[in-house]
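To whoever is covering the structure queue this week,

Two jobs came back overnight. Logging them here so there's a record in the thread.

Job A:
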Amino acid sequence: MLCQLTVKELSEKLQSGEVSSRDAVQACLDRVQSVDPQVHAFLSVNAEDALNQADAADIALKTARENQTKISPLTGIPIGMKDLIAVEGHPLGCASKILEGFISPYDATVTRKLKEAGAIPFGRLNMDEFAMGSSTENSAYGRTNNPWGLDLVPGGSSGGSAAAVAAHEVFATLGSDTGGSIRQPASFCGCVGLKPTYGRVSRYGLVAFASSLDQIGPYTHTVEDSAILLEAISGHDPLDSTSVPEPVPAFQQELKNGVRGLKVGLPKEYFIDGMDPEVRDAVEKAVKELESQGAEIVEISLPHTDYAVSTYYIIATAEASANLARFEGIRYGKRVDGDDLFQLNSRTRGQGFGEEVKRRVLLGTYVLSSGYYDAYYNQAQKVRALIFQDFQQAFEKVDLIATPSTPTAAFKAGDKVDDPLSMYLCDIFTISCNLAGICGISLPCGYTSDPQLPIGLQLLGRPFGESQLLQAAYAYEKATDWNSKKATAIPAP
């Protein structure tokens, strides 16, 4: 079935004329209809629009074949979009009641780049409301289920993006990562999730949660597919003041350089008590595999790791409090009238925001308030600088850092809903990457025994070091067969 193909495999079939883009889109539509009632990865799919775009792509593909000209490898390929990335004419709801019915009037830069590359933005993917969560249980429209176990969470906040790939509902997706929201779901769902360096990919058209931490990245079945997507969506954007004018390497062409001679750091702070022994064992075996291919393994220290979670939840909530102030019931989105402006604002926000969003807005407002700004927010920014310094010093000794993506495999839905602190600790291995602004990737490195659930290896690279990061991930992936396994809780495609 077409849905089993990787982006690279589908691209080859499209460009040879063996299959059409319409065939590929229809296969996705059929698969969504078949399994999404169980998975609930999608909030909506506009079938007519997707098929119309596929027909246009088929014309472009036919013209390229007839003229023997090169065409983008993404031409005609449907790509799922997390529900906080703007696609003109499509819903942009952030899985929140406060934006119910809102239609985006413009494309995000990543959307425009995908369209220019010939890809087809396909559907709106479920998520934790405003990207605030680690399990996709905070969506106003119901949770997403993990294709490896429908009673398990897919991770968050980009759970819909990861689950859609794991369930073979679409060939690749885009998510966003503020504290692990790409890498943690990739680990839980057994796919590849890439968080680029802050500034590598434009955030224009991404509804902001925490502006200094957010970054858009791809979910795919293979590392090579991630390289193809990253190359398409990267690059400087004058519409985003934090976008960095850094050249975009030919990521796909550089994949096969291998790991021989690379130094890979193992931070002692990431191999902690309380980690699932099977996760530790799988990651240690993955590191041995990299060593067998010629990498040098070096023990390193990232001494301020213990402060990462508390630092993150001060900075992220403070920025969320500021960013979400725009949703007040006047300019767009849900509006609940009141007798005066204060009542209108409070009713709109009270009824429009979910519990986790309210919690984070309150926390953020508190740490920014008079008398607490210096005690909390300023202190957190100082610790953030120390965390960045830890990584700078580490990358003077090593080229990459290897860690578990998460302390455990996917947990059961409802297990942590009433314990926010326990939920926040799910991102303990991923948060530092965002605070430091570096790049990271999660890819499958094994499975637990009973039940059989994916385990993720996280590799971290220096700022704008995605080429080396992808090379190491590709070398490991090619030496193993973890990414060939299919999710077991839904019918095979």
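Job B:
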Amino acid sequence: MAIEPKPFSLDTVLNYRKRLEDLAKNRFLEAKRVHLIIQDKFISEKNSLHSTITTCATLQTEGIEITKLILFEEKITAGQKNLAAIKKTIQEKKQLVEKEKQNLLQRSRDHQVMKRLKHDQNISWKQYLDKKEAAMLDEVAIMRHGKSPIDPK
């Protein structure tokens, strides 16, 4: 009775899936890091704009030259445009983070499926070998005792 060769090993595929998962994880973490940096920049810019507006209001109550007032107004307008641009960038980065998160989840699921498939394949192979071994032991026992398992003598 010849034993069949073991089926294709899933180790290579499993390693590949693990690398894809690790790559997706790194991309997700990088996207999240960039998103947080831009959020910090937004908060900083917002605080700076708030400070400029407060300073302008204070100087207006105290009396300010018209040229300085125009400069403050231009600075406030530029700050508001900059805030709007940063806000738009935050939304884009947030979408990128979500996309990378979904990619990571998919890669993780793929890796888990391959692990499960490898585990199931190993169990099936062990059961096959156990069955073959039991058949060989039965055959040896029959040959040794000279009786067939069906023969009641």
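Note for Job B: The chain is about 85% helix and 0% strand.

Please reply-all if you pick these up so we don't duplicate work.
Q.
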